[in-house]
Amino acid sequence: MNTTPIKRRQALAAGAAVVTLGPLAFAARAATASVGQAAPAFELVDVSGKPVSLAQFKGKHVVLEWTNPGCPFVQKHYGSQNMQSLQKDYTAKDVVWLSISSTAKDHGDYLAAAALRDQYKSWGAAPSALLMDDSGKVGQAYGARTTPHMYVIDPNGVLVYAGGIDDKRSANPADVKTAKNFVRAALSESLAGKPVSVATATPYGCSVKYASGA
Q1: Angstrom distance (rounded) from CA 197 to CA 180
Q2: Residue 214 confidence (pLDDT)
Q3: Which of 27, 53, 84, 141 could form a disulfide with 43 if both were Cys (CB 3.0 to 4.6 A apart)?
Q4: d(Cα 37, Cα 86) in Å, to the nearest integer?
């Protein structure tokens, strides 16, 4: 993968704070979003400046992926093609995939819209949209604490999964092969009309680089 736009920040990425939140810690810090309840409504602009709202996808499954290309855990899932594989497999099944950056403008990992778009394009990413949440308000509404941090919303607008992408809490790309992918399982079950067997899991990765006061 091409990492040219992020080389200047790799030292920061390598030392990024790693967060693994257990169920009690997550419950204490989560805001509005709750599995089994309606997902919080939001509207953001994508990297081309187009407004995108959750409401416009009513009737479809939606995945929310909190992301930051400067994070080694994000690099793990893109460098191994794990994230792109999920995106391609499920958007082909009419699932909407929204990748969201909540990185503050004053943080070293921040990329403006055009640079962010180019970085994910160079990785072959295939989300339905790449959204800018510079204020961090949407991330805070969902209680997003790590990159990646994953959410699955069903066609009724109900949050049916929240947590880590899988059960291998490392930045080692080799671990993808033996990991239990919670997002794939949740989507497969929900698309088949079945209840999601693992509806929450511990999120892991780098801390979301929220703006002060977000």
Answers
A1: 13
A2: 63
A3: 53
A4: 24
